[in-house]
């Protein structure tokens, strides 16, 4: 039996109360991950479309327009989905929950309408600001309207999360993503509409997503508004607006500095590398974010809650690094197969961006004390500090070191946020984490990545085979370096023994 399979079953099939909760979290996370996997698959399919039908400069333009979409969405949703989600767990009473959902729905419908009006008034101004031409005004207008539908979809999404209806969410998400994929391919490949075609496809996908979510969740939704509940949700959410904007700066400001101090072509190459690194976000960070909240709050009053929280951090880091290794090590070979030569250097930033998202996943997982005690202002504090550090370092380093400075600055900023988050959460809700094991995970993973990139092999096939061998050696090295504890080793031996017996019976 492959070592990866034994390790997976060891972590998530043990019969203890703690592992029962771990399994439930992972179960929902895997279902959400199917949606993320679909999005990632779509993104992967679209990479050769973008790199063969758009120039690196056009891809840079698209990246900057996407920045506008994200900023609009973060600003106008008021971070209210987080307030809705937190209030939902204050009571099990269905009437109360209808009021919680209805209040958020009314507010977000109003904010979406304001965003649409803003798109007609300010789109040409934003085009001049970013590109020194009004030619991209219609692009920005349409992407902002698409963002208004994203805001509307956030209400049923949060309700599905709160009720742990992960399968319904995933089915709806996959269907809408496929529509977006087909729309983008049609407008870009068959109609040759370039950047405009990508945005039209995105718009079609967001509109359909909103219709699907509301149409399938009407029984769970309402328009029942309460001023008291609105104040309660906004009190929790408004501090998170600054956190969202700071997160936006962390994720996207490097493209702006690259556009100012370098070229749109460099922006395009870096954005492609960042996009590949964000595959980890689709497979791990987003599914974890969807599944973690309901599980974290549902066990917070249980006796073994702290042990569960501690184990989850170890396993989140483990599986994030399991995903990081193939994404990072094989990115060069993949880019050489699917893209034009002008995009090949994008592989250089992939492992750094992946490690940054590992830090983000760890930060999400340790935000237990902040969530339980409703201290959302502390999230704003550490994200703002990370954003300030990011801006300062990008400003001084990008003119000298280009896109590599942008990548390393992103990683350093996420490390700072992880440290601050840990300090805040330990004061509010102390948890003993398995830091020795976690550091061992990082050491082994980074060591394998260094080996993979240090020895360059001209043949794509041989290079991919060599790196695949390194990837598969990860759990074996962990076993040899005594990473697994006694309970896990015992479980692994049991699984191995059961598998041999099962194979023996089949061969008879």
Describe this structure in words.
With 508 residues, the chain is an all-alpha fold. It has a domain at 54-225. Helix content is 84%, strand content 0%. It has helices at 3-12, 17-53, 56-76, 80-88, 94-131, 137-162, 166-190, 194-216, 227-261, 264-277, 279-298, 305-329, 331-338, 350-366, 368-372, 376-401, 403-428, 435-454, 460-472, 474-480, 486-507. Residues 1-8, 12-16 and 31-37 have low confidence and may be disordered.
The helix count comes to 21
SSE-based structural type: mainly alpha
In terms of DSSP E residues, the strand content is under 5%
Question: What's the N-to-C terminus distance?
Answer: 18 Å
Give the strand tally: 0
Net shape: globular
Radius of gyration: 23 Å
Biggest sheet architecture: none
Q: Which percent bin holds the helix content?
A: over 70%
Mean pLDDT: 84
Report the order of strands and helices.
HHHHHHHHHHHHHHHHHHHHH
| Uncertain spans | 1-8, 12-16, 31-37
Summarize the SSE layout with pairings.
Layout: H1 3-12, H2 17-53, H3 56-76, H4 80-88, H5 94-131, H6 137-162, H7 166-190, H8 194-216, H9 227-261, H10 264-277, H11 279-298, H12 305-329, H13 331-338, H14 350-366, H15 368-372, H16 376-401, H17 403-428, H18 435-454, H19 460-472, H20 474-480, H21 486-507
Helix pairs in contact: 1-21, 2-7, 2-11, 2-12, 3-5, 3-6, 3-9, 3-10, 4-5, 4-6, 4-9, 5-6, 5-9, 6-8, 7-8, 9-10, 9-16, 9-17, 10-14, 11-12, 11-14, 12-14, 12-18, 12-19, 14-17, 16-17, 18-19
């Amino acid at each position: 039996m492959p070592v990866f399979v034994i390790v997976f079953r060891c972590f998530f099939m043990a019969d203890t109360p703690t592992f029962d909760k771990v399994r439930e979290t992972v179960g929902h996370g895997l279902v959400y991950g199917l949606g993320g996997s679909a999005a990632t698959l779509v993104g992967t399919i679209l990479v050769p479309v973008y790199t063969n039908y758009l120039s690196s400069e056009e891809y840079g333009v698209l990246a900057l327009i996407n920045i506008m979409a994200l900023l609009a969405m973060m600003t106008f949703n008021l971070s209210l989905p987080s307030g809705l989600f937190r209030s939902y767990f204050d009571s099990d009473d269905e009437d109360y929950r209808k009021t919680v959902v209805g209040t958020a729905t009314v507010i977000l419908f109003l904010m979406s309408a304001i965003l649409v009006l803003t798109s007609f008034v300010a789109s040409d101004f934003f085009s001049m600001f970013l590109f020194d031409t009004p030619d991209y005004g219609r692009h920005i207008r349409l992407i902002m309207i698409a963002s208004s539908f994203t805001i509307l979809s956030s209400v049923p999404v949060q309700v599905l999360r709160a009720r742990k209806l992960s399968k319904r969410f995933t089915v709806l998400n996959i269907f809408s993503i496929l529509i977006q994929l087909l729309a983008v391919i049609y407008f870009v490949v068959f109609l040759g509409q370039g950047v405009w075609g990508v945005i039209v496809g995105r718009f079609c996908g967001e509109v359909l997503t909103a219709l699907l979510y509301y149409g399938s969740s009407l029984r769970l939704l309402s328009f029942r508004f309460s001023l008291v509940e609105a104040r309660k949700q906004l009190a929790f959410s408004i501090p998170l607006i600054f956190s969202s904007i700071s997160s936006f700066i962390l994720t996207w400001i490097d493209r702006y500095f690259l556009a100012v101090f370098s070229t749109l072509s460099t922006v395009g190459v870096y954005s492609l590398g960042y996009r590949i690194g964000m595959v980890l976000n689709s497979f791990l960070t987003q599914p974890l974010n969807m599944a973690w909240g309901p599980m974290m709050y549902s066990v917070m009053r249980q006796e073994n809650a702290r042990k569960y929280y501690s184990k989850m951090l170890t396993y989140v880091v483990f599986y994030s690094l399991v995903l990081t290794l193939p994404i990072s090590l094989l990115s060069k070979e993949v880019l050489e197969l699917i893209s034009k030569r002008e995009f090949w250097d994008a592989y250089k930033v992939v492992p750094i961006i992946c490690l940054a998202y590992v830090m983000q996943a760890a930060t999400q997982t340790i935000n237990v004390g902040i969530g339980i005690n409703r201290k959302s202002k502390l999230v704003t504090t550490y994200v703002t500090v990370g954003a300030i550090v990011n801006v300062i370092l990008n400003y001084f380093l990008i003119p000298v070191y280009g896109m590599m400075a942008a990548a390393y600055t992103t990683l350093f900023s996420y490390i700072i946020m992880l440290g601050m988050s840990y300090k805040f959460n330990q004061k509010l809700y102390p948890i003993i984490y398995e830091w020795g094991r976690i550091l061992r995970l990082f050491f082994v993973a980074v060591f394998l990545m260094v080996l993979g990139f240090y020895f360059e092999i001209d043949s794509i096939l041989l290079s991919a085979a060599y790196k695949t061998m390194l990837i598969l050696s990860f759990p074996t090295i962990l076993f040899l370096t005594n990473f697994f504890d006694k309970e896990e080793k015992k479980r692994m031996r049991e699984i191995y023994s059961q598998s041999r017996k099962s194979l023996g019976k089949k061969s008879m």
